[in-house]
Each structure stands twice: as C-alpha cells, then as structure tokens.
Write a structure and sequence with these properties.
The structure holds 2 protein chains of 2 kinds. Chain A is mainly β. Chain A has helices at 3-7, 20-27; strands at residues 12-13, 32-36, 41-43, 58-62, 66-75, 89-96, 103-107, 121-129, 132-139. Classes of the chains: A mainly beta, B alpha/beta.
C-alpha cells in the first residue's frame, strides 16, 4: 500500500491508557462514557482525574446513546484528505441525555443539511473505518 | 480596585508593515516595530530594560520546528537583535496568550522591576494552509475530534455561530452590515491590511465558506508582521513625546467549559461574564463607562459573545445592535474603530490594544471617536487565557 492510500484514510484515533476503554466499547458497538463515582458526574472527553472534583475514581459506563443536536457546522472542503468523499461533511456537537453540556463530537450520518435542527433528537450508531470503530450519530426518524 | 489603577501607561505604539508574505524576515519586521514604538515615545533602545511576548508559532501539522527570526522571535533573541541583552533586567514569556504579557509587563513596571518594557507580537504566516491535519493518526484530545474532521478553530467557532443563529433567529444577512462597516473603519486606518479594498454586503454573503456559517470574511487574515507597545509608569510617560494611555485595569479568564468540544457558545459567554466581573471590580467602572470597544475578532462571532458577556448589550441582542449600526464609528458604542483583526490582520489582540491607545490619546485621525475617554479591549474567546483591559485618557 502506497503513501497516498494511507493518507486517504481519515485520521484514526491513537488509543492511550485513558482512552482505551472508550474505543474498546466502540468495537463492541457500545457508547461508554467516563463516570465519576465521587461526584456522580459524567465526563467526556475521558481524563485521568475528574475535572469537576479532582477525584481519580473514574470508570467507563454504558451511556444511553441518545442526545440532542446542540450545534453543527458544514465543511465544504475536506478537513483532511480522507474526507474527500464525505463533503459536504456535517460535524455535529451532540449533548448526551445523561447530563447537561455533556458534549461529544460526531458526524451526523445519513442526514442532509436541510434536515438539521437545533435540539433535534439523535442516537448513536457505529461506523467501521479501517480497523477502528467510531461512535457516530444519526437523526432519529421523523 | 486595583492598587495600581492608572499608574502604568502605554507611551508608544509601533507597527511593522503587515503583509501576507513578507520579503523581510520576521526578525527584521520585529525590530522595525520595536524601533517604531520607541520613536513614537521619543525614546531609543538604550531606555529599554524589559521585553515581553508569547512567542508561539503557527501550526505546521508537526512537520517542522520553529526557527528563531523566521518563525518566531523570542524575547531572548530580540535582545540580541536589538543589541540590548546586557541591559535587559526582566523578560516575560510564559503566558497562554500574548496579551497576558501586557499584564506581566504592567506588574513589572508597577513593582519597579522594570522601567521601560516593550510588549510585542511577532507572527509569521507560513506557506501553504495555515492549519493542516495531514497525519494518518490522532492522539491526545484530537483522537476524539480528528476522526470526525473537527480539528480547526474556524470549525469550532462555526458551531457557536450556528447555535447563536438558531437560538435567536438571525442569519448571515443580519451580520453583513457590521462586517461592511468594519471594513469602512479599516479603510481609515493606515496600518490596516485591507485599507485599500472596499467591501459590500453582497461580497460578504457570497464569499467562500471556511466552515459554514463561517466564511473567509469571518476570519482574520494571517499576516507576516509585528506590533509593539512601549509601557512605562504614567509618571514617566507624561514626560515623553506622546500623551499616555493609562491602564485603568485588566482581567483574565480562568473559565473552562466541558472538554467534549473546544468551544461552545454558552461557556464562551460565561467566560466573558467572568472577565467582566473581574474587570469592573478592578477598575471601579462598568459598561456605561466605555466609549469605544476593541473586541477580539479573530473570528467575527467573538464580537457578539464579548458584547453580550461584557454586559454591553443584553443576551441575544448583539447582532441586532450591530445590524442597526450602533457599533459604527458614529454609533452609540463604536466597535473595532481601526478595523479589528478582521481588517488589520492577525496579531492576536495586539492591534486591539494599539487601537485603544490611539483612541484615548486622540490619535485616530479620520477614525477618531470624539470624546473617547475610555476604551475597552477584549482578547480571545472568553475561555481561560482570555483577557480584557480598560484604557483611559490622562485626566479624562
């Protein structure tokens, strides 16, 4: 495989000690989000200590996978070579139902720009890219 | 109130030429701006005993490092360049953003550590795209954003812009009058990058999208160049060539939003509100004391979030306020009187500081706002590392 074929894949996540559980769950088609047992708050993106209370008592828990579309942007130019076939690319910010302002970055797959509404209900789905599974979101049917 | 209120002043403003790709090195441009600021104050290099900046470089997608004098100019290198290393007693260079260097410099002067300090921002515009994401893998925080194509600051700001539009029922057409008026201000500013290029609402509404709804004309233009300010005590400044602009007070944000996204509308405004509380407490002033406002516009939307966060306009009304012309030079609260970064070029808030100094010292020429006794400056997006300053006319 030449360099151009490698570059044509979207940037793939490099797992680390903190993120491994998030990506492992995605491979099993589950959206797991860190939860702090000390202050009873969800936390995304995952971190070593809780940004709310400083505790290290964080563990991944399955989330509902449901949320609301909080904001979005539409990219007409591919943000990296691997997105060439995905423009116009919708990048969405989803507020997960578990907690106010619990945000996750996603694409809104299978939707047109005209269908997007602030607060539209969305649900998680999973997309295979190379050897990685990405949590993604789609609009919940009309 | 701040103990050193009005006791530190900006006594000189200096610009290099600002161009898209300079034939000259960043080192040469930086020396020009510093010498211009000194000359403005009627001083020479011999007077300097302090230098401060935050010499970060543009992103190269990790492909190469930063070369002194080409990509960055650190204060240590600047001391060599100006031939003044031996006389420099204080250097500030540990900040999150360059405007925090102005806070550090003010502290150094107020405490007597330094007497004449140059605060400068030297920025190089590298060839190619300003922000590249060409790596096949993304680690750290980017592992949660890069696989979705969400790695560029314009795209982050675009989501805030979209949410503002949707929440309050505005569209880009409502913002066009401000963008056009801002260009008109730029054309009255000899330092403005876009000073010779008029702009119409039609231009704004048809220009290329960077990250919808953020267009090319909603982003400041990257330039090669430098802006420098000469700070000293108000007492010393009164004996210099130009009238001093007094630093009445400043504030910095420490507000951090949830980490799931880099920016979100509500937390940017919450951060701006934190800055506002701190600034009004430090200065003993309030929104009604502001005569002109230099609001950071690295991305145009930040003008809106600062207007609302600083309490200058009620929530949800900033875009209508601008649409009705209240932010124009002859409006109720003239905003970005020199064209801001959208018009002058990207120097991360330094040009906003320079414009505030110009307004409160009556040096604005065609763009001077009569009776502009106090000018507010806000920098960045309201989140941690954002700053705000209030400058006052001497005896005003």
């Amino acid at each position: 495989m030449g360099d151009s074929a490698v570059a044509a894949v979207r940037p793939l996540p490099l797992e680390d000690d903190i993120s491994a559980g998030f990506w492992a769950a995605a491979r099993e088609r589950r959206l797991d989000i860190q939860y702090c047992s000390s202050c009873s708050r969800w936390n995304h993106t995952p971190s070593l200590t809780c940004p709310n209370c400083g505790s290290e008592d964080l563990a991944f828990r399955p989330a509902s996978g449901r949320g609301l579309l909080y904001a979005w942007t539409v990219l007409h130019e591919p943000p990296a070579p691997g997105f060439r076939d995905m423009v116009p690319l919708i990048v969405g910010v989803v507020e997960l139902e578990e907690q106010p302002r619990l945000f996750i970055t996603t694409n809104i797959l299978g939707a047109t720009v005209e269908q997007l509404r602030l607060g539209a209900p969305v649900e998680v789905m999973f997309e295979e890219v190379a050897d990685v599974v990405l949590p993604q979101f789609r609009l919940v049917g009309e | 109130m701040w103990e050193f209120r009005d006791k530190v002043a900006v006594a000189g403003v200096g610009y290099s030429k600002l161009s898209r790709r300079s034939e000259q090195s960043l080192a040469a441009l930086t020396a020009q701006a510093c010498d211009a600021a000194l000359a403005d104050a009627g001083l020479t290099r011999a007077a300097l005993d302090g230098l401060a900046t935050m010499p970060s470089m543009p992103r190269y997608g990790g492909a190469r490092g930063a070369v002194e004098g080409i990509d960055v100019v650190t204060p240590w290198f600047l001391g060599e360049l100006l031939g003044i290393n031996e006389q420099i007693e204080w250097i500030g260079s540990t900040n999150g953003m360059v405007t925090q260097s102005l806070i550090d410099a003010a502290m150094a002067i107020a405490s007597g550590v330094a007497t004449h300090v140059i605060v400068y921002r030297a920025l190089h515009n590298p060839p190619g795209k300003y922000i590249n994401f060409e790596s096949s893998h993304a680690g750290g925080h980017e592992q949660y954003t890069a696989p979705y194509g969400f790695t560029s600051p314009p795209a982050w700001a675009a989501t805030c812009f979209r949410r503002y539009f949707e929440l309050y029922g505005y569209s880009r057409a409502d913002f066009a009058p401000f963008i056009v008026g801002n260009r008109a201000n730029t054309m009255k500013n000899p330092n403005g990058y876009w000073r010779d290029k008029p702009l119409t609402e039609e231009d704004y509404l048809t220009t290329r999208m960077i990250a919808d709804p953020m267009s090319l004309l909603d982003c400041d233009i990257p330039v090669d160049g430098c802006c420098a300010l000469l700070l000293t005590s108000t007492e010393r400044a009164r004996d210099l060539k130009k009238p001093p602009a007094l630093l009445t007070g400043f504030a910095a944000s420490t507000h951090v939003g949830p980490a799931g996204v880099a920016q979100n509308l509500e937390d940017q405004i919450a951060g701006s509100e934190q800055v506002a509380r701190r600034l009004w407490a430090a200065t003993g002033m309030g929104p009604s004391d502001v005569d002109t406002a230099q609001l950071y516009d690295g991305f145009s939307l930040f003008v809106i979030t600062w207007l609302e966060g600083m309490g200058l306009v009620p929530k949800g009304e900033a875009m209508a306020f601008l649409r009705e012309g209240h932010g124009n030079l002859d409006g109720r609260l003239p905003i970005n009187t020199g064209g801001g970064a959208l018009g002058e070029g990207r120097l991360h808030g330094m040009t906003h500081l320079a414009e505030a100094v110009i307004q409160v010292t009556d040096r604005g020429g065609e763009r001077q706002v009569p009776g502009a006794n106090r000018s507010l400056v806000t920098v960045s997006n309201g989140l941690a590392k954002a700053t705000a300053f209030l400058f006052s006319r001497d005896g005003g």
